[in-house]
UniProtKB/TrEMBL annotation:
The keyword Transferase applies. CDD domains: GST_C_family, GST_N_family. Homodimer. The keyword Transferase applies. SUPFAM superfamilies: GST C-terminal domain-like, Thioredoxin-like. Keywords: Transferase. It comes from Microvirga brassicacearum. It holds the Pfam family GST_N_2. This is Glutathione S-transferase family protein. GO terms for molecular function: glutathione transferase activity.
């Protein structure tokens, strides 16, 4: 069985979990607290970042984007026209562009700030950066999420899915990152109905169920987090 080293509220890890669910791959989830930098984990991924997939053969596949490419290489062809990374060159470029947008830009401007300040710091020792959240970072992330939500709405206004006519890695990456922000109640869904309806479609997929079951100890999710018709 494949092993996924991840954290329940790491947005990149959530993307990998959605991918495994969509491909129907059973995996053992090994929770990593990246701030602990466990030696056994660093031995398989010296960078110390999440997620890391170890497939049945023992191959170590580190990083959300690399995992996505690996799964497309090894499992994508059997999906034919339902492939999450389309076969056309132009279409693949657009998916990769948006994948970078959410795995890098959205992560750096929104989801990493909020996950770190509102979740990780609750469990990190003071000497490793734990403690009270930085409210300036939270305010910045809350401001930034509006820009990204409007961009999602703009794309969906002219397309069926973010990158075009079919569901792709772009949608799964965006939804994975938004799911963390949504848990915390920091997505202003009322400001963009188009983006909200797109997220509801993703949220209703079977692969999303395990994400919706996750809980931060001592912190309840937002009211709409589990509601598929929010």
């Amino acid at each position: 069985m494949a092993i996924l080293h991840s954290h329940p509220f790491c947005p990149q890890s959530r993307f990998a979990r959605l991918l495994l669910g969509e491909f129907g791959i059973e995996s053992e989830l090994v929770e990593e607290k990246p701030w602990e930098r466990r030696v056994p984990f660093l031995e398989i991924n010296p960078a110390g970042n999440l997620p890391v997939l170890v497939d049945d053969s023992g191959l170590v596949v580190p990083g959300a984007g690399v995992i996505a490419e690996f799964l497309d290489d090894t499992r994508g062809p059997v999906l034919a026209d339902r492939r999450f990374l389309p076969q056309g060159v132009v279409e693949r470029v657009e998916v990769r562009r948006l994948l970078d947008w959410f795995l890098v830009k959205f992560h750096e401007e929104v989801s990493d700030y909020l996950a770190t300040e509102k979740i990780y710091k609750r469990f990190m020792p003071l000497e490793l950066g734990g403690g009270a959240p930085d409210m300036s970072a939270i305010r910045a992330a809350r401001a930034n999420v509006r820009y990204h939500l409007n961009y999602i709405g703009y794309l969906i206004a002219t397309r069926n899915w973010l990158a075009g006519d079919q569901l792709t890695y772009a949608d799964l990456a965006a939804a994975a990152h938004l799911s963390v922000v949504d848990y915390l109640g920091d997505v202003p869904w009322e400001e963009n109905e188009t983006a909200k309806l797109w997220y509801a479609r993703i949220k209703s997929r079977p692969s999303f169920r395990t994400l919706l079951a996750d809980r931060v100890p001592g912190m309840a999710p937002s009211e709409q987090y589990e509601n598929l018709d929010f």
